[in-house]
From TrEMBL:
Transmembrane segments: none
Protein name: WD40-repeat-containing domain protein
Lineage of source species: Eukaryota, Fungi, Dikarya, Ascomycota, Pezizomycotina
Keywords (A to Z) from UniProt: Repeat, WD repeat
Keyword Signal on entry: no
Amino acid sequence: MAYSGTTDCATVSGTEDGFDTNGSLAPPPSRFQHQQRSLPFRLEKPSDGNMTRAQDSEQEGGRREGGLRSFIRRASVSLRRRRHSHAPQAIEDRPSTSSSTWHRVRQVASFNRHSKCLPAPCFDEDLSTDVSEIFAPIPGYGGAPPIIPRGSGGEAARATAAAQNDLLFGRNRQLGQLEDRESGIGIAVTITDPIQSDHHSSINSVDFMSALPAELAIQILAHLDHTALVRALRVSKKWQFAASSCHIWREAFLREKSRTYAMSKPLQLGAGLGLPYLKPDTDWKDLYRIKQELERNWLEGAAEPIYLNGHSDSIYCVQFDESKIVTGSRDKTIRIWDMKTYSCKLIIGPPDFVGNNAIVTGEDGLPQHYAAMPDLSRQAQSTPSIVSYPIHHNQSILCLQYDENILVTGSSDGTCIVYDIKDNCRPTMRLQHHTAAVLDLAFDDRYIVTCSKDVSICVWDRATGIMLKQLRGHIGPVNAVQMRGNTIVSCSGDFRVKLWNIDTGKNIREFSGHTKGLACSQFSDDGKYIASAGNDKLIRIWDANTGECIHTLPGHENLVRSLHIDSVSGRLISGSYDQDIKVFDMESGSLLLDFPKWHSSWVLGAKSDYRRIISTGQDPKILIMDFGLKIRGIEKLESRR
């Protein structure tokens, strides 16, 4: 139904609101046209297909009759307004118009002017502004017609009626174009299905793995981390094929699994650090899985214990690699064990050991050397070879170290022996100058450094065995030494940690903080950090350059006898007389793992690599804590060619 400008006014023409049929602004009316627009206008009725002929005839008659009355009233009002002035009347004396038809029209028009969802021309911003500036008609008393303000000429009524007509009769035309309506909530209300753009649909559906060359797609995926690669494998078969490329997983493995904490150089492949040699047939995806499972076991402390039996007394020192374990004992022997089979291969000892069957066979006739597995089964029973050389130790083996060429041992007899590891560990020379037991040693390509109970440190030429320097400065037994480059770190029973320059032989820095004698110290591979511990039960981590104590690590309940820094992972392994083995994080100082009472007596030595912790103690057993024993394919991380 059409809406009129006043109660009795007829329908507003669609072209009298200042807009043409195309919605563009029409030329401004002339003065004559402006005057005529205050008169009643011709009735127009939009077509309605649902209205019958009888209804049309009846309503048309009513409109003509009402239109004639309205015409006379409007004309009289207009003429009166032009000739006379109305006496001013207070607004408060006027009757209320809050419920009048005109007020309701203004409310509806005002609401629709601010609607954001009506694209019809009658809701253009310019028209809304013009309508709001037109004064509202002043209602009359009783049946008197409303008073149209001077100069308005009925424009407010026409504009409002035009807006309402267009709203009523144009709604069905506009609904098909509406895509969103303001609802007052955070949900967009759509009347019709959104129009799908072929352009955007084609962009969203493009699979770049199909569009790009395989080589380029693989290069892109190579930058993803492990989590993203696992997700990429599940996208589609094409993605799975590309994301399974050995190149992608090799990059991910080398990028994420070769990070180090305190190494002086990047990790070398095939150096026994959990990075195998590059081979054409290497399955890098499987290697990544293995490394991931191994790291998870370290985080959870999921280690399998294996005990190697054979020594007859306390085992003071140990070193190992991927293929062998070398131990030194109070029983005066050095023993070499096979890491794969856990069998003992060689015993090096004094002459009275040769031919002594009691060393290799027990009273029950069973081999003395065997491995006690996690399921308590007895495996790897072996009968090792026993050798003795003219150059040998007559007392306890307190310390040792080896590389691919030589093995060096230190003993309670005050001497060190250098062996050719490639010639069945045949001794090549003896280093003799200390006047008391050799408590620890270290060497590199140029020097062999030893420390002793005689409170001194000796520096030897590796090639010739000549003593080059003897360093003095400690006032107690020097219990541990280690070297990096031309720098030596030592610790003593005098509570002190000292740094020495090999070239000058001078003490260059001293670290104070411990309150009791020190038993062990360690250098990180890059020489930036020092760890020390002893009888005060505390482990201290120092900045080697500044002398600052970075962390103080409590936890042990007795003397800390052994320390080992894994510079690749940043783990610090400690062994104590409280029979515990602990794993700390070097960077944060937090305790990562604790293995209490895995030894039945004092822990005397503990070392680790990427897969294992191996420790020795007063009980004559070697403890292998294997974090990769149950991982399928763990041997692929080894550095064998």
